[in-house]
Amino acid sequence: MTPELSLGLALAIPAFAGVLISLLGRFPNIREAVTLVASVLLAANVAYLVSVTGARPELNILDMGGGLSLRFELEPLGALFAAVAAGLWIVNSLYSIGYMRGNGEKNQTRFYVCFTIAILSAMGIALSANLLTMFLFYEALTLSTYPLVAHKGDAKARRGAAIYLSILLGTSIGLLLPAIITVQYLAGSTDFTLGGILGSEVSPLVSSILLIMFAFGIGKAALMPVHPWLPNAMVAPTPVSALLHAVAVVKAGVFSVLKVVTYIFGPALVQQLWAADALAWIAAISIVLASLIALTKDNLKARLAFSTVSQLSYVTLGAMLATPLALMGAALQIVMHAWGKITLFMCAGAIYTATKKTEISQMRGLGRLMPWTFGAFAVGAFSIIGLPPFGGTWPKLFLMLGAIDTGQAILIAALIISSILNVAYLLPIPGRGFYEKPAEETLPKKTPMLVVLPPVITAAGATALFFLIEPIRAFLAPVFDAGVPTP
Amino acid sequence: MMEWIAALVPALLTEHAPAVLVVAPLLLAAVAALMPEGRSAWAIALVGTLVSAVLSIVVAVDVQTGGVVSYALGGWEPPVGIEFRADALNAALLLLVSGLGLLSVVYALPSVADEIEPHKRALFYSAFLVCFSGLLGVAITGDAFNMFVFLEISSISTYVLVGMGAGQDRRALTAAYNYLILGTIGATFFVIGVGFLYMATGTLNMADIATRLPDLSGSRVVQAAFAFIIVGLGLKAAMFPLHLWLPNAYAFAPNFVTIFLASTATKVAFYTLIRFLFDVFYPDAAFVQASFVWVFAVLGVIGMIAASVQAVFQSDARRLLAFSSVAQVGYMMLGLGMGSAAGISAGLLHLMNHAMMKGALFMALGGFAIRFGVRRISDLNGLGRTMPATAVAFTIAALSLVGLPATIGFWSKWYLGIAALEQGWWWALAAIIISSILAFFYAGRLLLAVWIAKSPEHHGVPARARSPMMMIVPLWILAAANIWFFFDPEPLLALARAAADAAITGAGQ
Amino acid sequence: MVELIAERFNFIVVIILMMTGLYAVVATGNLVKRLVGLSLFQTSVFLLYITLSNVAGGLPPILPADAGYGGEGGHGGDAAHGGDAAYGEAAAQGTDVIYSNPLPHVLILTAIVVGVATLAVGLALVVRIRETYGTIEDEAINRADYAIDSEEKSS
């Protein structure tokens, strides 16, 4: 296998699986086997890609004239994002089977097909070599997740899905597209190039406006005030919220922001822009404000959604600070938060499958009945909060160090306040679960193994990542250490 | 592919292709009128459009290999005789008109059978052939007065075609009447302008006028001629705010007519504007320059936004798309107003793209109409489940209208945006984006109805319906073209660039 | 002043007719009267063209039996005199006879045909409108259509 072939396979495997699943809709067992096999194959393929990232393989699908092309190129950031999405897809596939069957959901074939298209789009975003390709898959991801959000088909789901689509498509057409066109005009290309392609001839004002357009145009990054799509997307079935709205979709957003900062503007340029400071502040405000809102939510998934909004802004914050340490922190946050948050969502889904409970106030004492689930939840929560020895520790550390580099100590305060708020809105859930008296003595029905095991696996992963920090850091080092000045 | 088709045509026909492609449908129109019933008249219309399509390809290949094709009608050499003259711009238009004409005729048989009374069908096809021939004539003639005649041939038959919608909705009659009044005023303005040009230059051949005008650019007569011609052609092209005839005409005409008009008629009128601005009038003249920025760009931008806003609030599906057409004409006017090669080629690219997406959208609406009598947006409710094949094609074309990637609409916005930035026109890029967001809303209203809204109860579960194969195939050809040309835009871009170059260098030749 | 008017008498008539026609189109609510206005408007343009063809002192462009070709007779206008009327520059080439320019007459024959066709289609439409609506007044038609519209909305 050559790296180029492998790049193509990263897209071909989910595409092929999608076709196969739509054909096999009538045979649920085979259909779900295809999903699983595809996810394992994709993960293996991405693992191979990670091992050859140093060679920077490229794959040109087609030229569209005028220097525009559909092109893929492997670089460490993209490989990392692809690895997270592909790796968690396996766990999530297991979980989906348990959840969808356990809750007797309808239209499961459509669900699995759209899911594979969403994964395909996430891979496309991760591996894209220019803004045009990224934009194509970015929109594909929005459209393919729309049926997943509207899955239930009732009025509430349709309304949520309409808001979801309006905000994501509206921001991408209204801000991202003109920003990309402007980059094409200014730089004559939209290729991702280490160090950036916007030269010094572009005035700081134009660059600043462009940066703002990118930051808000990439609505998937959920920077306030374009975040409301994310809480609204929570009407989707929990596996969708878990993989897509804690990992693939939202991470595609912040990944795109990070990639634009690193490869289109270049960190050196971003450090000098006033817009970057402003956006860092907006991100800091998002972090604190979203955490405060999360505190007021009784619905578990809504609380987790606002927690995601808050945590995503860590990445934007790191990207806007644009020092090597801050960027490293941002990239690590993509990985660490993914493992932590997917655990929390899967636990929420497991609780719902077992008891049909969605409100936190109803979950007193459930921990005694579902010890594994609540245990995994606690681990995920610790990781999100940033306690050692869990993966979430590192991004916060790097981000704080990065903030010190820029001399913006007050941003550190935002990070600390947020951690305290994380404790306040996450820990009561396992706390009450374990220490209060349950309302019932037994669960109404036996919880399927397939919804309990996956969160336990990801919780273990979130722990393991704490110890795997050095290889990941070394893997990313070529992107952030080379040529990024420390102010 | 095109060369291969062109090689099949006998040499005699190749030699006279420019004339035959216009005359053949005109003569066949007379034959069609004599047919006893619709089906044979349809066959004749099909033959007529097919002949014109093939001969358009012949002309296009000639243009590609030999540059400008000039054909002297009746052997009278220009500038005295009438000249048919084709460069890359004409060739692109001929291909567009005859290609979409052919596709819509294929589509017509079931649709017309559904909407037009049997005894009128033969005459209906006859009127269509006259209209088709007139549009091709406008697209190829090199003589200003002859252009007026062809414009009127196509317009008068269009009034008839629009009025034929009266069988479905009586408002078609008033729509046709209003179109007739405004269209005739437009044509008369045009002919006044041509008269002034003749007064100043003593010739009617467009290329010949162009050689004489640079010395006369200070002349008031020429400036008056310019104003009259721009207003006249702007009316025909539905340039905002001269578009008032269009929404009702599109909304109440028979579906087939709307498809054909939306994808060809305003396009041809837009072509005449380009032709006059760049190849007849001297584009460096101060008044022409001023018109670029202060007439075309400004009105284009206002039209893009105002008509899109109006489209958002329509309740009739076809009226919504008609207002969207007015907005899309605004995009083309903006491209024209830039006056640069990049701008014009972007405008022309959008012209071709828009013909494909609007053609597909109206075809899909016609498909819905033939099964469920759809007119209002609420009539579309739930059709995604009942007519999936048509609904998917409709969705593709609607997304193309918004300009999402993976559809050709994306390239329209992309190249227009780049061209605007090259002029330094940031506001134009902003207008394009605002209009795209509005397009997202009005297309979204249609798609929400098709896919999300509950279908009305037809005795429990609504049965699946399919429009006839002859409607599905042309629809899907256009829908597939909407996607195909995103991934392979080079042919369209090359066509648009060559046409823009022809328009710009054509001046003073 | 009088001289100025007299010199441009034809143009003044043309403009008066043109404006009358346009005004009639805009001002009346009667569909037939509107068509009358439209025809008047078109006819004024025919007069404009005919006026252009006049060459000062020109003869009707008919070849006498004994004369040869009169040069490029159909090519009358001259750039230099553009503003007023066309002067046959070329008519004098070859022979001494000055002809009026015949080309506008030919053009106007075509334009008349176009005008007649338009009028015919317009009147046919008015007949159909009268059959369907029972009126040819614009306002009454609008009222009738508004009734349909609101009916559809309520249903």
UniProtKB/TrEMBL annotation, chain A:
Topology in membrane: Multi-pass membrane protein
TM ranges: 6-24, 36-57, 77-97, 109-126, 161-185, 205-230, 278-300, 312-332, 338-354, 366-387, 407-427, 448-469
One Pfam family matching this protein: Proton_antipo_M
PROSITE patterns recorded: ODR_DC_2_2
Entry annotated with the keyword rRNA-binding: no
Subcellular localization: Cell membrane; Membrane
UniProt domain NADH:quinone oxidoreductase/Mrp antiporter transmembrane: residue ranges: 128-420
Keywords in alphabetical order: Cell membrane, Membrane, Transmembrane, Transmembrane helix
UniProt family annotation: Belongs to the CPA3 antiporters (TC 2.A.63) subunit D family.
PANTHER family for this protein: NA(+)_H(+) ANTIPORTER SUBUNIT D1, NADH DEHYDROGENASE
Protein's name in the database: Proton-conducting transporter membrane subunit
Organism of origin: Hyphobacterium marinum
From TrEMBL, chain B:
Alphabetized Pfam families for the sequence: Proton_antipo_M
Signal peptide: none
TM region positions: 16-34, 41-61, 88-110, 122-141, 147-167, 179-201, 221-244, 256-278, 290-313, 320-349, 355-374, 386-412, 424-448, 469-487
Chain ranges of the NADH:quinone oxidoreductase/Mrp antiporter transmembrane domain: 143-438
Cell compartments where the protein resides: Cell membrane; Membrane
Membrane topology, record value: Multi-pass membrane protein
Keywords: Cell membrane, Membrane, Transmembrane, Transmembrane helix
Keyword Transmembrane: yes
Main location: membrane
InterPro entries: CPA3_Na-H_Antiporter_D, ND/Mrp_TM
Family as reported in the entry's similarity comment: Belongs to the CPA3 antiporters (TC 2.A.63) subunit D family.
Name of this protein: Monovalent cation/H+ antiporter subunit D family protein
UniProtKB/TrEMBL annotation, chain C:
Pfam families linked to this entry: Oxidored_q2
This protein's UniProt keywords: Cell membrane, Membrane, Transmembrane, Transmembrane helix
Topology of this chain in the membrane: Multi-pass membrane protein
Membrane spanning stretches: 12-32, 44-63, 106-127
Residue ranges of coiled coil: none
Subcellular location: Cell membrane
Keyword Membrane annotated: yes
Family, per entry: Belongs to the CPA3 antiporters (TC 2.A.63) subunit C family.
Protein name per Swiss-Prot or TrEMBL: Cation:proton antiporter subunit C
Organism encoding this protein: Hyphobacterium marinum
